[in-house]
Amino acid sequence: MTARHQILTGGADLPELPSVGWCRLRQATDLDLVPKCPPHAWEFWWIRRGCVDWWVEGEVHEVRGGWFYLTRPGEEHGACSAHIEPGELFWAQLRIVKNTPLELTKLVLGLEELQRRTFPLLHDATAMWWRLIAEMTSTEDTVRRIGAIATMQLHLVEALRSGMVPDQGPVLSPAIARAIAFAEANPDLPIPVGRLAQESGLGPSRFKECFAREVGDTPADWIRRRRIARAKRLLMTTDLPVTAIATRLGFPTSQYFATAFTRLTGMTPTIFRTEAVRPRA
Fold it and tell me: Which of 2, 19, 157, 247 has a 20 to 30 Å separation from 254 between CA atoms?
């Protein structure tokens, strides 16, 4: 089984949460996602593992594991591609209605003031999301409503606190920061792990250990994701031929590039370009 998912609806007794769900993907999968523009609902996503490219109102956001993402009522949004990379994600739609508790309404007003729509949460939200799903499946209608709203409030408190923290990026040691700065300054350069270790000033084994601990990914996987992410941006924002993109990013052949791209995204570069949503300017 390549994908597991669950979608729950609030129903008449819980109109504040018209949709709550989760999805776990073992490999890149076509989820048949279509652009949405709910006129009266907020939408919240939390990516537990993996990385998803979302667009909203002409913006493109790369949402990584541990990050929260929100859209406001009336904002058209969706995934840049129907194919979602391997990982695990949770989502919820939230509406403010006549009988919505005041505390929940105040939290939403606080989120309205945030300058960012995607940011890392200060703490792991896995337990809160599973609690919300458990409350949504309760057979006791009164308890279900109270429990689901209370859990959603706790999650939004965490989101609001996290969103108010200045965007300073991850806390990295000077050695790992030097390696990443070198990679970011050379986006089209095929950089081997050994070169990053050299830039960091650490030995290869020590560098790999520190990088994985601080970044949350191995150097090799981080480089691979970085190159494919760069390729996706070029496919979405330019008309460069696939062979030119492969050459620009240092892949030995266009076939090698296509194989690496397909392994991570579940589709060829050509199909990705056809299916990917190009946000409005």
Answer: 2
